[in-house]
Amino acid sequence: MTAVVPSPELTEPVEPPPSARKPKRNWTPWVLLAPGLLWLVVFFLVPIFTSVSASVQTGDYDDGFKLTWHWANYSQALTDYGVQYLHSGIYSVLCTVFCLALGYPVAYFIAFKGGKYKSLLMALVIVPSFTSFLIRTIAWKTILADNGPVVQFLNDAHVLKLTSALGWTVGNHVLASPAAVVCGMVYNFLPFTILPLYTSLEKIDPRLHEAGHDLYCSPFTTWRRVTLPLSMPGVIGGTLLTFIPAIGDYINAQLLGNPNTGVVGQKIEDLFLRNTQGYPVGSAISVVMMVGTLVLVMSYIRKAGTEDLI
Amino acid sequence: MSSNDVLGRTEGGDLRLAGLTKRYGSFTAVDDLDLTVPQGSFFALLGASGCGKTTTLRMVSGLEEPTAGRIFLGDQDVTDRKPYRRPVNTVFQNYALFPHLDIYENVAFGLRRRGVKDVKKPVTDMLDLVELGHLAKRKPGQLSGGQQQRIALARALINQPQVLLLDEPLGALDLKLRRQMQIELKRIQLEVGLTFVHVTHDQEEAMTMADTIAVMNAGRIEQMGSPAELYENPSTTFVANFLGQSNLLTGTVEGVDGDVVTVTAHGQRLTLDAARCPVRSGAVILGVRPEKVHLARTGAEIPAGHNRLTGGTVVDTSFIGVSTQYLVTLATGEEVSVFEQNTGREIQRPGTEVVVHWDPSQGFGLEGGQDIEAGAADIEEDAA
């Protein structure tokens, strides 16, 4: 028995062990990342650090602020602004719910029935955002004006009596009420709900609907069992993109609300711009909001069980 | 009618299409189709893309509404029933498995929607039938094409539909797997005994599996019958060319003598079995399959009584192993293909002068005046 055929292992080209290879550092990814990292350091890490540090300082605008580890700022931030936290929470949750209820059918329609007009319809959803946020919000003052058709109709239909009794509107006005604030927020944040919803609905193969119909699902059951579960990433993405800016928003409350609709953002603005000693408490509230939002969002994502988003 | 269940399934229900028509604007996809598929049969709708076969299937499943005509299952008219109220299930071309559900839930889907409480046993049995029980907890995306295909089949079959519709279910598989699945599908069909309606453009697939094939062309059925019937006695040039290959020669009937029809084609006298020739006078198209034609060098001995076409020259020789395929050009310019079994015969090189000959009982006749290229181009299109 002579070995004529060399064993197959020997004929295989031998890969050099990793340590023997010439060490070659590839800088390209770092160079590409540099602008983004720099941006994050300057406009994210540094401001967070200054905010957190300011939240435990004392002093005033003229004499300067000193780091005194004054934790009492936090007890003040947590106890004195309960109503504003509550308002921010309620308005942003309502805004998110209404945006989802209004946005889902729109996104569904565009994704599945839009045909060749899909892009045009999506453009129509986004186009209003080309106008300034402030202008769009102020426009709602006209829409909800006392002599405008909306309020006239609601008055004639005696709807405002009911809503005012519930505290959503005030007397026979809609402006300067919680309802107006929520309306403005829903209008302003709706595209943020529709975009991710559309993206995830559009990815769903319409043949899955046919498979649903074929397997004894009525149109509603098909939506409930097939479309909705498959669009959950869009639902979660859309609600987060709406909720996060909404909870920090104060422009709508300021322009469309009244003194009783104060939200946290307004208080932070007051403390920073109209109070010479307000920096520390203002910063403390900001930190509380940030941490609070983070905790809410994380538990929401965990509950909804979408790993794709994290 | 005591055997009706929730979905209106009946015993002994043939699928019957009556005058079924589908128009899209001015385009007629399915043209006044009449068809009966007997219960328990494996029926294939065969045709090139765009011939209306898939549209027909979608009308049966309810996913498409017919412009006119009725669809009956047994004695019930289901034309106006929503797809989710028909005792019919589909295996979709690209499977359309639900990506968010695991294999088990995909298969259980139909049962759950119908409110069946105990799905464990049927689902397990069905997964065993398609031999994929071990993948129950996987998601569709983690399965290979062949496995997804079998799950799609299981998901439809578990509902024991009165008719199972298969829309080119093997189209996305590679050749080897397709062969394997063809045998598998036939086995399952025999095992469960349900009516299968299979749509395909692959004639070999249709012939392998189906009891009955309907060849569709331009929204109409060209011919229907068993694979052997269609192959041996095509009734149109389209069927002759679409199902396998045919040598078609235009000629004129000279006379009928008992069981023999005499034809002149390209100046040569040929004969045909009267039983296989619908034409008794005038123009005729004479057809013969390439594997039934033999080659002989000019001057060599030819069995007595054989039809012969003389003056041929071999222009192409392809040795395939199991057979050798020749292309012979006749003096008149006609081309004849010849498949010779590899039985140790001499291989004729291009340029050789030959006579092609065949047993007259192997030829078939078709109505004259048809396009002898019909159906042949479609095959090339599919191959491209």
TrEMBL record, chain A:
It is a multi-pass membrane protein. Residues 1-23 are annotated as: Disordered. It comes from the Bacteria. The chain crosses the membrane at residues 30-49, 90-112, 119-139, 175-198, 228-248, 281-301. PROSITE patterns: ABC_TM1. SUPFAM superfamilies: MetI-like. The keyword Cytoplasm does not apply. It is found in: Cell membrane. It holds the Pfam family BPD_transp_1. Residues 85-300 form the ABC transmembrane type-1 domain. The keyword Transport applies. Its main location: membrane. Keywords: Cell membrane, Membrane, Transmembrane, Transmembrane helix, Transport. InterPro entries: MetI-like, MetI-like_sf. Belongs to the binding-protein-dependent transport system permease family. CysTW subfamily. This is ABC transporter permease.
TrEMBL record, chain B:
Part of the ABC transporter complex PotABCD involved in spermidine/putrescine import. Responsible for energy coupling to the transport system. Keywords: ATP-binding, Cell membrane, Membrane, Nucleotide-binding, Translocase, Transport. The complex is composed of two ATP-binding proteins (PotA), two transmembrane proteins (PotB and PotC) and a solute-binding protein (PotD). It comes from Streptantibioticus parmotrematis. Pfam families: ABC_tran, TOBE_2. It catalyses: ATP + H2O + polyamine-[polyamine-binding protein]Side 1 = ADP + phosphate + polyamineSide 2 + [polyamine-binding protein]Side 1. The gene is potA. It is an enzyme of class 7 (translocase). InterPro entries: AAA+_ATPase (IPR003593), ABC_SmlMolc_Importer (IPR050093), ABC_transporter-like_ATP-bd (IPR003439), ABC_transporter-like_CS (IPR017871), Mo/tungstate-bd_C_term_dom (IPR008995), P-loop_NTPase (IPR027417), PotA-like (IPR005893), Transp-assoc_OB_typ2 (IPR013611). Its EC number is 7.6.2.11. Belongs to the ABC transporter superfamily. Spermidine/putrescine importer (TC 3.A.1.11.1) family. One of its GO terms (molecular function) is ATP binding. Residues 15-243 form the ABC transporter domain. This is Spermidine/putrescine import ATP-binding protein PotA.
